[in-house]
Amino acid sequence: MTKRQNFPRFFFLSDPDLLEMIGQSKEPKKIEVHIRKIFEGINAVIMPPESKGRGKNVEIEYVEASDGEQLNLFKTVEVDSKVENWMTKLKETMQSAMRKVFYLEF
Predict the structure, then answer these.
(1) What is the pTM of this model?
(2) Tens-place pLDDT, residues 50-59
């Protein structure tokens, strides 16, 4: 219940889905199917190639819709072991990026 209180969008997930997200928290590609349930318009997360190496910090640079349209986040979101923390950062970064795109706040 604590994870759901820290990130309310986890209420959209079943208990097994949430447990899988917690267990695979440092592997965004492995939990993309659950990210799609939390953020309806997001189909994939895009990481820079250098972020995927062993022992490297995993970072998200873009999000992609099912039609292939990509949203540049303008800054990377670092993935850490606490899934609720980086999901909150991802949500806030997406909101900021959308404001920049729509209002041209560069």
Answers:
(1) 0.86
(2) 765 454 578 9
> In residues, how long is the chain?
106
Q: Is 89 helix (H, G, I), strand (E, B) or coil?
A: helix
Are the C-beta atoms of 47 and 28 separated by less than 8 Å?
A: yes
pLDDT digits (tens, 9 = 90+) for 75-92: 999 998 899 999 999 999
**Would you state the pLDDT for residue 103?**
83
Cα(23)–Cα(17) distance, rounded to whole angstroms? 10
Indicate which CATH number applies to the domain containing 75: 3.20.180.20
- Beta-sheet strands, E only, within 12-103: 44-46, 59-64, 70-78
DSSP E strands: which ranges in 5-105?
Answer: 44-46, 59-64, 70-78
The total of structural domains in the chain comes to 1
